[in-house]
Design goal:
- The protein is an alpha+beta fold and 102 residues long.
- The chain has a domain of 58 residues: Winged helix-like DNA-binding domain superfamily/Winged helix DNA-binding domain (Arc Repressor Mutant, subunit A, Orthogonal Bundle).
- Helix content is 32%, strand content 10%.
- The protein has a three-stranded antiparallel beta sheet with strand order 1-3-2.
- Helix 1 packs across helix 3.
- The longest helix is centred in the C-terminal third of the chain and has 13 residues.
């Protein structure tokens, strides 16, 4: 075969690697969640709507103080939202949640 005239010649180039800048924050792993937090998240995930702390306490079977600490930690991590209702209730947080947050 004869080489074609006017055809594009492809040059082999090395991929460019971006060097990290000093102002970029270091990548950190997400902290692991406890067994209590996992149980509360699973309970809220399968619930059709928000659950009150008392409902969660009976479903997860833990004492009130531990549940409050667990819920506070999950709200701080933005895995759970506290709903604006007459009786405070909580819901599993998903990307498209359209509820009124605290």
């Amino acid at each position: 075969m004869k080489p074609q005239r006017g055809g594009e010649q492809r040059l082999v180039q090395r991929p460019q690697v971006r060097e990290s800048r000093s102002e970029d924050p270091p990548a950190t792993a997400a902290p692991a969640i406890s067994a209590d937090e996992t149980a509360v998240l699973e309970c809220l995930r399968v619930a059709p709507g928000g659950l009150t702390a008392k409902q969660l306490q009976s479903r997860v079977a833990c004492d009130r103080q531990l549940l409050e600490q667990t819920l506070r930690a999950l709200v701080d991590r933005e895995l759970v939202v506290r709903l604006n209702t007459i009786i405070p209730s909580f819901a599993y947080r998903s990307g498209g949640l359209s509820t009124h947050e605290r």
